[in-house]
Amino acid sequence: MEIQRPHAVCIPYPAQGHIFAMLKLAKLLHHKGFHITYVLTQFNYAHIMKARNFLPLTQSPTFRFETIPDGLPSRENPDTALDIADLCFSTAKNCYAPFMELIDMLNRASDVPPVSCVVSDALMAFTVGASQELGIPVVFFFPISAVASLMHIYSSDIRDKVSKNKDVIFGDYIIDWIPGVKSIGLSDIPTTAWSTDPNDPFIDYLISQVSKSYKASAAIFNTFDELEPEVCKALSSMFNRVYTIGPIPMLLKGLPKSEIDKIECNLWKEDSTCIQWLDTKNPKSVVYVNFGSMAVTNPEKLVELAMGLSKSMKNFLWIIRPELISGDWSTILPPAFTDAFKDRGYIADWCDQEQVLNHPSVGGFLTHCGWNSMVESMSAGVAMVCWSFFADQPLNRYCCCSEWRLGLEIENDVKRENVESVVRELMEGEKGREVKKKALFWKERAEVATSVGGSSFLNLDKLIGEVLLSGGQHFPNGV
Questions:
Q1: 18 among known catalytic residues
Q2: Which CATH code is given to the segment(s) 273-446?
């Protein structure tokens, strides 16, 4: 046992996107010399094992997995989409005690170093109390954009101002009083930061989580300073310490390869044959379509999207995970699409998205605008077609298309004609050429940030030296 290693306990919010982002961060810390204990919920661990055909998770003596319960009743069908609010309420109420028991077990174990710090998803705010009791630093990881994080910080103010304004028209109300944000429409802010119901319990919950985040030793954001300069500046005055260390996938690629890089925590089995299909296509000829791990749509919209893809006459790789729609997609989609699919398409349940986005045949990404997807697409220099669903996705869509200009929009009330025209424009039109140039521009800027001497590269070392190895000295007094 390498007893002198610092020991970081990493705990994500139990949803695929959060698990994936935290895993990347945990790998970074392991490369920097940390012993890692990665904490999954028992439900997600079982889901991951099923996706792996019950093959053990790849790990090492210095990178291990542990589980705690999420507090929800057992689910008969693991492929049923989780209720996000129920999961949030349950983890906040039920996870503190088992988490403390886990830390105690680790500290009594003879084959691991004592726990020296906690790296927590910002939605798992119970870790603040745990770290205070243990006397060790806790850093909160926000696996969303800096501007989306800022909107959640101002959620209470947005609700107060909007509810007091009886003349608000949803699409016309402009927010121009948040530091670091020039102006933004109410319809573009995260649906988790504001609700038409002034007493929405889920918004209350998120506000309470944000209030606890100020008590953390530091906050980490998966972004880079040049992408969101004014927002990052505003955030730096709100937390004890702020570290922008993104894009995390790029930082990880710059480190020496190891067996730890092979560790994955997918809730669905990856279809590796889709890469073989991509190998048969011409460079930049394929539209990659994926709506992430939590989005759900209805049969009508699925059909409109499918027919738009079909009519665009472009090759497409489409990821349709089991929970995206209730029922079998093959029985819902019309014969006209099935014929096009046989000629130009490939459909899979899940895939290695980074590998797909970096494949030479991929020329565009039709995305739900989840932050992981945005960061990975930007890191690969791939322009996007944006169709957002909920949470931070509308804001990501707005920033992608209006601020950073590396994407084109599909109307929320999706119609096949609009899908066809936007996909064609991305792949062969003048606007498509413009956003592709911007995608390459931002890829280059991200490479600078994550290279030796870049802002994110330096911030990672500062995070480790100033907080994670500080022995708790930066934990705020009186928490």
A1: yes
A2: 3.40.50.2000
CATH 3.40.50.2000 residue ranges for the chain: 7-264+450-468, 273-446
Contact 377, 287 (CB under 8 A): no
Is residue 343 part of the annotated active site? The answer reads no
Catalytic residue among 30, 31, 47, 121: 121
Enumerate the H helices of 360-409 as residue ranges. Answer: 371-380, 393-398
What gap in Å lies between CA 62 and CA 11, rounded to an integer? 16
Q: What is the largest CA-CA distance in the chain?
A: 66
pTM of the model: 0.92
Chain mean position to CA 180? 22
**Residue of 7, 18, 35, 152 marked active site:** 18
pLDDT in tens, the chain (479 residues): 454 799 999 999 999 999 999 999 999 999 999 999 999 999 999 989 988 888 888 788 999 999 999 988 876 555 555 678 889 999 999 999 999 999 999 999 999 999 999 999 999 999 999 999 999 999 999 999 999 999 999 999 998 888 766 666 666 788 899 999 988 988 898 989 988 788 889 999 999 888 898 999 999 999 999 999 999 999 999 999 999 999 999 999 988 888 888 898 988 888 989 999 999 999 999 999 998 776 677 778 888 998 999 999 999 999 988 777 666 666 678 887 887 778 899 999 899 999 999 999 999 999 999 999 999 999 999 999 999 888 899 999 999 999 999 999 998 888 999 999 999 999 999 999 999 999 999 999 999 999 999 999 999 999 999 999 986 444 333 32
User: Tokens 């792996």 sit at which residue?
Assistant: 52
> Which CATH number applies to 7-264+450-468: 3.40.50.2000, 2.130.10.10, 2.40.30.110, 3.30.40.10?
3.40.50.2000
Nearest-10 Cα torsion for 346, 347, 353, 357: 30
